[in-house]
Amino acid sequence: MGENTLSQQYQVLLAAAREAMKSAYVPYSHFSVGAALLDSKGHIHHGCNVENAAYGATNCAERTALFRAMADGHQAGSFQAIAVIGDTDGPIAPCGVCRQVLVELCGPDMPVIMSNLQGNWKLTSVAELLPGAFTPASLVKED
């Protein structure tokens, strides 16, 4: 799926997402997801889903990677790409909440690499994941 081949950089990012998936805490769904976020300095921030018995407190892999990078001092808009992987039939897609967070913290053209354990993948962008997104600019009232 996607184009014929992924760049070496995106392959490394997918491998990091696969490794992050191993840390998932999923005692309820048993559905592990991993994410890897590339920052502007070339560092990779790992994320995995972390479940909670109070389901609303569960955090997805993509948000874990983004929040971890923000907590480490990286600025919104400075990220280069994110990869996400899960044990799905086709490439896994970020949920709606993760899409909204991606819109807030990443540039609209930032690549999003979605994959599965069988090696199927799809390359898209933040803007393509959430067209017509509610953004910080949506909060500004025009006089």
TrEMBL record:
Gene Ontology annotations of biological process type: nucleobase-containing small molecule metabolic process; pyrimidine-containing compound metabolic process
Active site: 62 (proton donor)
Residues annotated as domain CMP/dCMP-type deaminase: 8-137
Domain of life per record: Bacteria
Binding-site residues, substrate: 49-55
Keywords (A to Z) from UniProt: Hydrolase, Metal-binding, Zinc
Pfam families: dCMP_cyt_deam_1 (PF00383)
Catalytic activity as recorded in UniProt: cytidine + H2O + H(+) = uridine + NH4(+); 2'-deoxycytidine + H2O + H(+) = 2'-deoxyuridine + NH4(+)
PROSITE patterns: CYT_DCMP_DEAMINASES_1 (PS00903), CYT_DCMP_DEAMINASES_2 (PS51747)
UniProt GO cellular component terms: cytosol
E.C. code: 3.5.4.5
Cofactor dependency: Zn(2+)
Signal sequence bounds: none
GO MF term list: cytidine deaminase activity; identical protein binding; zinc ion binding
Binding residues annotated for Zn(2+), in chain numbering: 60, 95, 98
Function summary: This enzyme scavenges exogenous and endogenous cytidine and 2'-deoxycytidine for UMP synthesis.
Family named by the database record: Belongs to the cytidine and deoxycytidylate deaminase family.
Matching PANTHER family: CYTIDINE DEAMINASE
Name listed for the protein in its UniProt record: Cytidine deaminase
Organism name: Paenibacillus oryzae
